[in-house]
Amino acid sequence: MYKNIWVGSVLILIFITGWRLFERDLIGDNYHLNNKDDMYIPQSEKGMVDFLRKTIRKDEEFLTLTGEGGWYYFLNKPCPVRFNIIQFALTPDFQQEVIDDFEKKNIKYVLYSNTNGCDQMDGFTNTHRIPLILNYVNKHYHPFKTINQNQLWIKNTLLTTSMVNP
Fold first, then answer.
1. Rounded to whole angstroms, how far apart are CA atoms 111 and 145?
2. What is the rounded distance in angstroms from the CA atom of residue 149 to the CA atom of residue 153?
């Protein structure tokens, strides 16, 4: 008998709480479910996101060295390597795995750096944290375009003088 009273009380409480959430639109106020994703792109990155959305083809890949996994979401492209935050590839074996992916996949564009500081928030830069990957990128990619301090590099084999943006 007490079990039925307890279950009934819990169900009434759930109903009242659920009713209040919807009546006061507390879910919409707190979670902004009706907002477009573009609203959440930082102003400093909008120009580069727009450029990449127009530029990257379906068969091309993009990788960021900035430590910001959100780029893949905003571009609707999966990360082409196992480490969507590249700084997690700390060991030489993990870095070699990333380099092997560079060799196997069509990674045309690399977001090399920006001013958000996610790639050095603990005081260590990519030069110290992922030197093998950085050496590979420095050798096989070249600066292509900078928009709002977001420096994009392009694969050397694809670089032509008409594409370079000084």
1. 10
2. 13
| Residue pLDDT, tens place only, 136-158 | 999 999 999 999 999 999 999 86
How far is it, in rounded angstroms, from Cα 73 to Cα 57? 16
The helix (H) or strand (E) run that includes residue 17 is helix 2-23
139 token code pair: 């050798």
AA letter at 95: Q
Global pTM exceeds 0.90: no
Half-sphere exposure of 137 (CA within 13 A, CB side): 26
Q: What is the layout of strands, in order, in the sheet containing 141-147?
A: 61-64, 107-113, 150-155, 141-147
Neighbours of 62 (CB within 10 A): 20
**CA neighbor of 65 nearest in space, from 95, 106, 27, 26:** 95
